[in-house]
């Protein structure tokens, strides 16, 4: 399964990844991180294609990591 991992302590809740995701796999969570921001969260089970748009548009380097299921890539 493809997914994006968002580091809650690096995310500043700018919503750029949320607005850029073509499959709507990311939403703004209800929790507040250590620096006082409401942070983005990946929706488990969403139809992520591992396109990487969320990674590329995020202004906080290292806040978003995208994982592609190797089985999907080979199959």
Protein architecture, described:
By secondary structure, this protein is of the alpha+beta class. It has a single domain (3-67), classed as 2-Layer Sandwich (Alpha-Beta Plaits), CATH 3.30.70.20. Helices cover 20% and strands 27% of the residues. The protein is built from three helices and four strands, in the order E-H-E-E-H-E-H. It has helices spanning 16-20, 53-57, 70-74; strands at 3-6, 26-32, 38-42, 64-67. It has a two-stranded antiparallel sheet with strand order 1-4. Strands 2-3 form a two-stranded antiparallel ribbon. A hairpin with a 5-residue loop joins strand 2 (26-32) and strand 3. The radius of gyration is 12 Å and the shape is globular. The two termini are 13 Å apart.
Task: Provide keyphrases for this structure.
75 residues; alpha+beta; Alpha-Beta Plaits; two-stranded antiparallel sheet; 3 helices
Largest sheet: 2 strands, antiparallel
The overall pLDDT, averaged over residues, is: 93
SSE sequence, one letter per element = EHEEHEH
Report the uncertain regions.
none
How many distinct beta strands? 4
Tally of separate domains? 1
Helix content: 10-25%
Question: DSSP strand (E) fraction?
Answer: 25-35%
Number of helices: 3
Task: Please identify the structural class as seen in this structure.
Answer: alpha+beta
Fold-level CATH name: Alpha-Beta Plaits
* Overall 3D form: globular
How much is the radius of gyration in Å?
12 Å
